[in-house]
Amino acid sequence: MGGIEADEPGLRVVFSSDRVAVVEKPSGVLSVPGKGPEKADCMASRVAAHFPRATGPLVVHRLDMETSGLMVFGLDAGAQRALSMQFEARAVRKRYVALLEGVLAQERGIVELPIRMDPENRPIQVVDYVHGKPSVTRYRVLAYETDRTRVEFEPLTGRTHQLRVHAAHEEGMRAPIVGDVLYGGGAASGDRLMLHATELSVFDPDTGRELSFVSPTPF
Fold it and tell me: Same CATH topology for 7-92 and 95-195?
């Protein structure tokens, strides 16, 4: 049986069943362990501790450390594989809310840019029309807030740092996400990365029923 679970220290469980867990990741927490014991704490380890019956690799997708919001985990190898295949097939619906630096002229649009990692400057992603992989994001303005713009992102592909690159790049929206230290003026603003995974819909591995979740934007 699935249901809503209460908060506990270090983990907010939005939904859980025998095979699936949906949680809210805080900004500043890794999705998976990093290198070294000081980076062992992450959402995957917290989920594993909360669900001791869980087996298998758990991890289905990732959010950047600075990004907050909804993540889904498979609690057994079969569920993890089924959910991962949904992401690969782009059958999952995801929406994010972000605050951007400046005022966008267009209230909605689509950004399409080929991106790849810069091997000389990891983890930076760059636009490369020869070797980059396609990335597509749909966006719409939610509100204008003085010198910032609140937008909703719908990524149609799932490249690393896709939303951050699409927002900041001169061939994209030319408006970095507030608090982005890699692609904008994050250090100067003093804000966290203002990017939150606010909506997530996946299909139950057993029944095929769509499971949809919403997380309020914390900024």
Answer: yes
Supply the DSSP symbol for 214.
E
Q: Which CATH class is domain 7-92?
A: alpha beta
Reply yes or no on whether the pLDDT at 9 is more than 70.
Answer: no
What superfamily in CATH does domain 95-195 come from?
Pseudouridine synthase (3.30.2350.10)
Q: Please indicate, yes or no, whether the overall pTM of this predicted structure exceeds 0.90.
A: yes
CA dist., res. 14 & res. 213, Å (int): 8
Classify 165 as helix, strand or coil: helix
**Length of the chain counted residue by residue:** 219
CA distance 167 to 153: 10
Q: What's the whole-number average pLDDT of the chain?
A: 93
Q: Could you give the residue numbers annotated as active site?
A: 64
Q: Please report the pLDDT score of residue 8 as a whole number.
A: 54
Tokens 């608090």, located at residue = 179
